[in-house]
Specification:
The chain is α+β, with helices and mostly antiparallel strands and about 180 residues long. The protein contains three helices and eleven strands, in the order H-H-E-H-E-E-E-E-E-E-E-E-E-E.
């Protein structure tokens, strides 16, 4: 297999394939204690709700996929955005596990937010990339997605913030050749 990969993708491509294979294997070895137990429980409950109990994800895989964190609700505790593209889950029925998270052009980025001593998972955003940004005194989540129908291409950016106990969209715009703001 690696000989064919070396011929087909060259040395750089083979290194990338090797890194991908290793990172998928190592994700299960990440200790679940890297996330608070309540985060894992909340996400497992979320998986049960969206799949009717059909999805099974190991704690180490969830910890590896919860790569973006920040204090979204200003309670001085980290909150986590889960990159579902990185999850290595198994579906007991109804097709592949990825179908629960990803559509044709984007994937879900659920937020696990602290609520006192408990945690809540909010299924909220779809896109291709998530990041935490600081906007003046407010921490926000930006979800980026390839914009469809924009001349010359572009990236749709949706921005969310925690206000009055809930996550709200604070803005949406398209970045590209002719960047234009859609909402404010």
């Amino acid at each position: 297999m690696w000989t064919r990969a070396l011929r087909r993708f060259g040395l750089a491509g083979t290194a990338a394939l090797t890194a991908m294979a290793c990172s998928q294997q190592d994700a299960a070895d990440i200790p679940a204690r890297a996330l608070p137990a309540g985060v894992l429980t909340a996400f497992h409950d979320h998986l049960d709700r969206i799949s009717g109990g059909a999805l099974v994800c190991r704690d180490g895989d969830i910890a590896a996929a919860a790569t973006v964190s920040g204090d979204i609700n200003s309670d001085r505790r980290p909150d986590y955005v889960v990159d579902t593209r990185s999850l290595n889950c198994q579906a007991r029925r109804d097709g592949p596990a990825v179908a629960y998270f990803c559509g044709t052009g984007s994937c879900a980025f659920p937020l696990i937010v602290s609520q006192g001593e408990t945690w809540q998972t909010i299924a909220l955003m779809s896109g291709n990339q998530a990041r935490i940004v600081q906007h003046y005194q407010e921490t926000r989540i930006e979800i980026r997605e390839g914009a469809r129908g924009v001349p010359g291409g572009g990236i749709t950016v949706r921005e969310y913030a925690w206000r009055e106990g809930q996550l709200v969209r604070t803005g949406e715009w398209v970045e590209g050749v002719e960047a234009r703001r859609l909402t404010d």
